[in-house]
Amino acid sequence: MTNVIIHGCNGKMGQTILELLKEEEEIKVAAGVDAFDEGKNPFPVFSDIRTCDVSADVVIDFSVAPAVDGLLQYCVREHIPCVLCTTGLSSEQLKKVEEASKETAILKSANMSLGINMLMKLLKDATAILAPAGFDIEIVEKHHKLKVDAPSGTALALGDSVSEVLGGEYEYVYDRSGRRKQRPKKEIGFSAVRGGTIVGDHDVIFAGADEVITFSHRAYSKAVFAKGAIQAAKFLKGRPAGLYDMSDVIGC
Ligand SMILES: NC(=O)c1ccc[n+]([C@@H]2O[C@H](COP(=O)([O-])OP(=O)(O)OC[C@H]3O[C@@H](n4cnc5c(N)ncnc54)[C@H](O)[C@@H]3O)[C@@H](O)[C@H]2O)c1
Ligand SMILES: O=C(O)C1=N[C@H](C(=O)O)CCC1
């Protein structure tokens, strides 16, 4: 049996995970954490994880960026592995994640779906062929109107997969509105659309002379992320300190 704490248990993702866990006999929710709680969950809910006194094997986090500092402090203090899914972390917070991973196991992934994690691999081959041939690279993402961070963590992670192949020489550009010059070659542009209930669309566009190749991923429900997070929690239980990602879980 794996005992989990759901950090952000009353959010859209927290609730999706709880729904899926009803079918999981091997995972028990020991506690939840959320700043807002109406007392409807069948487990204790804490308003700040640092006050949680329930023991668990793994924390699954889908919360808000400002809550992540406390989460890291708690996981290090209690030596509990953490599946860290919240996006929009600052560069200071990303450093804290690395520091914390020296003390406890942390699996950080901006996107828990199988499709996006496989796409990250495919992009490396495409970039190695298309960038030297002069193709420009642009990333377009679309999400629901409630999303607070932009560009999405996934768009940035897809950009990082591409950038790694390019030796980190390409600059990320998020806004061209104040610019009056052509796009330089060594640039990756990010565009974010927000509206309605779009679950999560990502297009990585390689635009060349007279031809365009687009890699597209569409998430049709939040369950794809929740399934990946549950799989990751099972994987992370009992693992030694270190920084893991979904490729460790999927094995690709
Ligand atoms: N990695 C992935 O695959 C993936 C998938 C979907 C969403 N996300 C990310 O997960 C996060 C949550 O997404 P969501 O759609 O569920 O958002 P949401 O706004 O519906 O839920 C966030 C929850 O966190 C709670 N919260 C606020 N302060 C808190 C605190 N101090 N401690 C604990 N909980 C607190 C909120 O009350 C809310 O219930 C976002 O950053 C989103 O980008 C990641
Ligand atoms: O709904 C969200 O918010 C999502 N956030 C992640 C991101 O920022 O990439 C994953 C997709 C859904």
Automatic annotation (TrEMBL):
Main location: cytoplasm
Record function comment: Catalyzes the conversion of 4-hydroxy-tetrahydrodipicolinate (HTPA) to tetrahydrodipicolinate.
PROSITE patterns: DAPB
Keywords: Amino-acid biosynthesis, Cytoplasm, Diaminopimelate biosynthesis, Lysine biosynthesis, NAD, NADP, Oxidoreductase
UniProt GO BP: diaminopimelate biosynthetic process; lysine biosynthetic process via diaminopimelate
Catalyzed reactions: (S)-2,3,4,5-tetrahydrodipicolinate + NADP(+) + H2O = (2S,4S)-4-hydroxy-2,3,4,5-tetrahydrodipicolinate + NADPH + H(+); (S)-2,3,4,5-tetrahydrodipicolinate + NAD(+) + H2O = (2S,4S)-4-hydroxy-2,3,4,5-tetrahydrodipicolinate + NADH + H(+)
Annotated (S)-2,3,4,5-tetrahydrodipicolinate binding sites: H144, G153, T154
Pathway: Amino-acid biosynthesis; L-lysine biosynthesis via DAP pathway; (S)-tetrahydrodipicolinate from L-aspartate: step 4/4
Span of the signal peptide: none
A family per Pfam: DapB_N
Domain annotation Dihydrodipicolinate reductase C-terminal: ranges: 115-250
NCBIfam families: dapB
Keyword Nucleotide-binding: no
EC number(s) stated in the UniProt entry for this protein: 1.17.1.8
Catalytic-site annotation from UniProt: H143, K147
Family, similarity comment: Belongs to the DapB family.
The protein's name: 4-hydroxy-tetrahydrodipicolinate reductase
Residues reported to bind NAD(+): G8, C9, N10, G11, K12, M13, C85, T86, T87, S109, A110, N111, M112
EC main group: oxidoreductase
Top-rank taxon: Bacteria
Molecular function, one GO term: NADP binding
Annotated Dihydrodipicolinate reductase N-terminal domain residues: 3-112
